Amino acid sequence: MDSISQEFGGLRALDSVNLNIQEQEIFGIIGPNGAGKTTLFNIITGIYVPTEGQLIFKEKCLNNKPAYEIACMGIGRTFQNIRLFNKLSVLDNVRVGSHGVTKTGFLAGMLGLPVSRREEREILADSRQLLELVGLDNKEQEYAGNLSYGEQRRLEIARAMALKPSLLLLDEPAAGMNAGEKEELMGLIRLIRDERLLTIILVEHDMNLVMNICERIAVLDYGRKIAQGTPEEIRNNERVIDSYLGVGA
User: Fold this and answer.
1) Dmax of the chain from CA atoms?
2) pLDDT tens, 60-114?
3) Alpha carbon 213 to chain centroid, angstroms
4) Going by DSSP bridges, is the β-strand pair 26-30/199-203 parallel, antiparallel, or unpaired?
5) Domain with CATH 3.40.50.300 in the chain
């Protein structure tokens, strides 16, 4: 990410942000509300086109690429507000995510060709594996809307992983969770990184979670990166303490 800036009607939401994320790293982005964290995620996933700068993923520039193409390149995400299909089953929610990377076309599916049926069987098996990974394998036929809040968060992670991403963006995954659910979430994030060899970028306000799970952290304030380093370096950075940690965030 090279000098990324984003303007909205003269308001500079991001100002020359540089980030270099290492493969299979759990990287945290923190900062007060309005710092530009979610805007950054929206740029990475193609929702916004940056006003300035270049976004490079696996040596390819993502600028001006549509969101569906970026997803197919291996970037998945969750959202700050849960976006599930509440009237579909838990299993079908994950299966829907898989269809972003299917190889057979619409016609093959309509005609029920062998290649399409084989791919559907593979999607079903992969979806069940993901539900087992996030601890929802015993609820695959329940409506997504009937799950507890913490379970819905885990389902959203499973659906994002159905795209088979190499980079997973988690936008405030612990929002609304109780202490026990947050502890389980930390274990889950480590597990999916280690088992699936993913790179994970995490936007989160819960400092206990960020400091205990992230290997490096960047701090944004008013659209600018004001610090980057290990959790220990961030915890002791006076500028970060003054602008963010010192106000109880």
Assistant:
1) 64
2) 999 999 998 999 899 999 998 888 999 999 999 999 888 666 665 544 445 566 6
3) 15
4) parallel
5) 1-74+166-181+199-249, 75-164
